[in-house]
TrEMBL record, chain A:
It holds the Pfam family BPD_transp_2. Keywords: Cell inner membrane, Cell membrane, Membrane, Sugar transport, Transmembrane, Transmembrane helix, Transport. Signal peptide: none annotated. Its main location: membrane. The keyword rRNA-binding does not apply. Part of the binding-protein-dependent transport system for D-xylose. Probably responsible for the translocation of the substrate across the membrane. The chain crosses the membrane at residues 12-30, 45-64, 71-89, 95-116, 123-144, 164-189, 210-229, 235-253, 282-301, 321-347. Coiled coil: none annotated. It is found in: Cell membrane. This is Xylose transport system permease protein XylH.
UniProtKB/TrEMBL annotation, chain B:
This is Sugar ABC transporter ATP-binding protein. Pfam families: ABC_tran. GO terms for molecular function: ATP binding. Residues 6-243, 264-508 form the ABC transporter domain. NCBIfam families: GguA (NF040905).
């Protein structure tokens, strides 16, 4: 197998990752290296965390063959309710967070009911939800911002994992470095294991040389990343949440029956139904899940801003949808991956951050992002048609 | 009558990696009906796409001569201008538009872009009369049946001043009666001097209607037979298509029939849109272990509705009646339930209802049996591959890889994937709705083999088919269904097309005769 063939065959798989790397490289050069400075990398994660959380839920909705336009408004509404619970009613933070997530699930169930059981188009139901929850946000906040949140709540978005004492020999965050090493070992172990299994079943696998190169690259990326984080304040709490969500939902979509049912429902609802998939329930659950993740994103955003504002979360839905599509999801449903959506979200995030660093104004940023979305999806479709 | 209207010389068309057409020669005489036959993938549709300009001049090698002139069609419009009109297998009517609008779609009766509705309706009425359709041209396309839709397609072709009409599998979706009408219409057009090319799998229809017949195999033109002069048997044609003798179109089988496995009693189903309108009334039937039972009926008789209403109430309203399996009455409330209780239903429309075309073979095969290959709801992917691989071998699914998307497979291979899916779910009762629709002769034989094998394993098999010879060749017993009622039951020994047709067309009454 030649390298060129390899790249061509895996264009869709690696295309976006390559694009992300290219964008990172481009902006680090343009910004004289500021982009990859420890402080900026940490900021990048904090800035984009809520979009990534939304993108994870959104790509599942899109795979199931639907769309959710309400997530930005739901974020704002949940943030507002969180403020009322924690600031006005002085309810303990932990309890308030759980209540907010339950509220998210109820909102998701509200959408899911109309979409799955009343068979209304998701575009319309969630467009209504977008208006409804934006309105309710303004109602409950009385048009005013509410702040500040309790300190322990703000830790979601501004806290870092504590360090382990290391005799004070180093200024680096030792736990972070350790996490990098452990993750590297896990990656090597799982890649080897799946390669062995694939060989056993006579699947075509990467030639040995490329496989080793892939492993080395992955390990290098992980450790450079953790090293960069370690030279600032270590791993932000939010990164842990993101990591858990990515791993959990990737697992669900790839390995579990419910994940397969989501793909099947989006791929061909009628055929899935006649194969015994309870497509209505699947659709309903996908929206409940989106509701919970919207609530979580709303909490993360509120904690980061340290205020609930009536205009919070505006346009979040579009960023999340763009992330899913840049990451290879298909408008028709049945196609997409969690990791793709996350990479798509990062492409948008790095571009936002990079353009701000080199002084591109916010209006131009918007325009350029639009073109990137168009180009990414256009490139994807061009490739797919070519490979036919 | 030996004027050549169309000659295609040494046509070669290559796709990346595949030679779809290899030096094909094809001649059609003025005023004849010429049949083009061959297995799926033999290159029939490709040849017609070359002819009609779907594949423009320059993308193929060879010459097309139409009425003596060399033609270089760049697109369909150019070929239609010459009078070559193709009606594709998949009907291209827009359901929300009226018959008249559909007929003149792309060819609107208009002056300076403004549609003249009067002439649209008048011209449409004239065209409908020619094809023998009495419906109002204002009727929406979605409100008429497939048979009538096919006639509208033909009316649409006639509106284009057609000289050479090409029909790709025109009767694939039609029942016997509508098919017969259509074929007679073609013969009528022939009398008026029109030339037609008909692509079909149904050899009895081809023999009935065609003057000459050209066989394609593996992208090559094998031979042209004259059906009117020589006495060409169907077996002779099949031999040309598959390149070998098919001893028998149905594999031999020794039925080993056991006790009653499945019974339906007093089954009633209402139309899902008009509650109170009965689609199925008081149907009773039984299936025995190891038995293959057929259901014969015209389109609209309620065959699919009956099957789907039994299969987890997936069709219809106000469903009532008893289901008895292995002597015990069971309740089936949804599809999952039906599968868990050992039922399987292979749909008549595999692309819409049977497969997830954007998913690969193994994921399609495992879909109904995910729980079986999972532990605590986590899918065992190795087991998934292994099961799929077993079926690929057993069913002879021709594919380079199990990760091939099912949308890229031929009809026969798609059907094998659907059957694999249901076999993996290990049903006791298997309902097959048009199991060989749109499948070539060779693959049909393989599918009959699979059906026989399932019966031999002691499963009870119910086959619904529009093709009577198929039912007669396959089944131990055949029920006739007409207007939602069982109108007759015939054992294999006594069954023939005439008896079945008689029962299938019997209307009204509650007659349940056993002959």
């Amino acid at each position: 197998m030649k390298l060129a063939d390899l790249l061509k065959n895996n264009m869709r798989q690696y295309g976006m990752i390559v694009a992300l790397m290219f964008i990172v490289l481009l902006f680090s050069i343009l910004s004289d290296g500021i982009l990859l400075r420890p402080l900026n990398v940490t900021n990048l994660i904090l800035q984009n965390s809520y979009i990534l959380v939304l993108a994870i839920g959104m790509v599942m909705v899109i795979i199931a063959g639907h769309i959710d336009l309400s997530v930005g408004s739901v974020c704002a509404f949940v943030g507002a309710i969180a403020a009322i619970l924690m600031i006005d009613l002085q309810i303990p933070t932990g309890v308030a967070i759980v209540l907010c997530l339950v509220l998210g699930a109820i909102i998701g169930a509200w959408h899911g009911f109309f979409i799955a059981y009343m068979k209304m188009p998701s575009f319309i139901v969630t467009l209504a939800g977008m208006l409804l929850f934006r309105g309710l946000t303004m109602v409950v906040l009385g048009g005013q911002s509410k702040s500040p949140y309790p300190d322990e709540f703000r830790l979601i978005s501004s806290g870092f994992l504590p360090d382990i004492p290391f005799f004070g020999f180093t200024s680096y965050h030792v736990l972070t470095l350790l996490v990098g090493v452990i993750l590297s070992l896990l990656v090597i172990f799982s890649e080897l294991k799946s390669r062995r299994a694939e060989l056993k079943h006579d699947f075509t696998v990467l030639p040995k040389g490329y496989f080793i190169a892939k492993l080395v690259t992955m390990v290098a990326v992980i450790n450079v990343f953790t090293f960069v984080l370690a030279s600032y304040r270590g791993i932000p709490n939010i990164l842990v949440i993101l990591f858990v969500l990515i791993v959990l939902f990737t697992f669900i979509m790839n390995k579990t029956v419910i994940g397969r049912h989501i793909y099947a429902t989006g791929g061909n609802q009628k055929a899935a139904e006649l194969s015994g998939v309870k497509t209505k329930r699947v659709t309903f659950m996908v929206f409940v899940n989106m509701g919970v993740l919207s609530a979580l994103a709303g909490l993360i955003y509120a904690a980061r801003l340290n205020a609930a504002t009536p205009r919070a979360g505006t346009m979040f839905e579009l960023d999340a949808i763009a992330a899913a599509f840049i990451g290879g999801a298909s408008m028709a449903g049945g196609v997409g991956t969690i990791i793709g959506a996350v990479v798509g979200g990062l492409v948008m995030g790095v571009m936002n951050n990079g353009m701000s660093l080199i002084g591109v104004t916010i209006d131009w940023q918007q325009a350029i992002k639009g073109l990137v979305l168009l180009a990414a999806v256009g490139f994807d479709i061009y490739n797919r048609n070519k490979s036919k | 009558m030996s004027d050549i209207i169309l000659e295609m010389r040494n046509i070669t068309k290559t796709f990346p990696g595949v030679k779809a057409l290899d030096n094909v020669n094809f001649q059609v005489e003025q005023g004849e009906i010429h049949a083009l036959v061959g297995e799926n993938g033999a290159g029939k549709s490709t040849l017609m796409k070359v002819l009609s300009g779907v594949y423009p001049f320059g993308t193929y090698e060879g010459d097309i001569l139409f009425e003596g002139d060399v033609c270089h069609f760049k697109d369909i419009n150019e070929s239609e201008e010459k009078g070559i009109v193709i009606i594709h297998q998949e009907l291209a009517l827009i359901p929300e538009l009226s018959i008249a609008e559909n007929i003149f779609l792309g060819n609107e009766q208009s002056q300076k872009g403004i549609i003249n509705w009067n002439s649209t309706i008048i011209e449409a009425t004239k065209l409908l009369k020619k094809v023998g359709l009495a419906d109002s041209p204002r009727t929406l396309a979605m409100d008429i049946g497939v048979g009538k839709q096919q006639l509208v397609e033909i009316a649409k072709a006639l509106s284009k001043k057609v000289k050479l009409l090409i029909l790709d599998e025109p009767t694939a979706a039609l029942n016997e009666e509508d098919s017969q009408n259509l074929l007679n219409l073609l013969l009528e057009f022939k009398k008026q001097g029109m030339t037609s090319i008909i692509i079909s799998h149904k050899l009895n229809e081809v023999s009935y209607v065609a003057d000459n017949l050209t066989i394609l195999r593996d992208g090559k033109s094998i031979e042209t037979l004259s059906l009117k002069k020589d006495n060409v048997s169907e077996d002779r044609i099949i031999k040309g298509m598959v390149g070998r003798d098919l001893e028998n179109r149905f594999p031999p089988r020794e039925p080993d029939i056991g006790e009653v496995a499945f019974e339906i009693k007093n089954w009633n189903v209402d139309d899902p849109l008009h509650a109170g309108r009965k689609l199925i009334s008081n149907v009773n039937f039984e299936l025995r272990k190891g038995e293959i039972v057929g259901i014969a009926g015209l389109m609209g008789a309620g065959r699919t509705e009956l099957a789907m209403s039994i299969f987890g109430k997936s069709y219809g309203k106000n469903i009532s009646g008893q289901i008895i399996k292995d002597g015990k009455e069971i309740q089936i409330n949804n599809i999952k339930d039906a599968i868990d209780k050992g039922l399987a239903y292979v749909t008549e429309d595999r692309k819409t209802y049977g497969l997830i075309l954007i998913d690969d073979i193994k994921r399609n095969i495992s879909l109904t049996s995910l729980e079986k290959i999972s532990k605590r709801s986590i899918i065992d992917k190795h087991r998934e591959v292994k099961e799929a691989e077993d079926f690929r071998k057993k069913m002879n699914i021709r594919t380079p890889s199990l990760t091939q998307k099912t949308g890229n497979l031929s009809g026969g291979n798609q059907q094998k994937v659907v059957l694999s899916k249901w076999m993996l779910s290990e049903p006791d009762i298997l309902i097959l709705d048009e199991p060989t629709r749109g499948i070539d002769v060779g693959a049909k034989y393989e599918i009959y083999n699979v059906i026989n094998q399932m019966a031999a394993e002691g499963k009870a098999v119910l086959v619904i088919s529009s093709e009577l010879p198929e039912l007669l060749g396959l089944c131990d017993r055949i029920y006739a269904l007409s207007e939602g009622q069982i109108t007759g039951e015939v054992a294999r020994e006594e069954a023939n097309q005439e008896t079945l047709m008689k029962y299938m067309t019997r209307t009204g009454g509650n007659g349940h005769e056993t002959s």
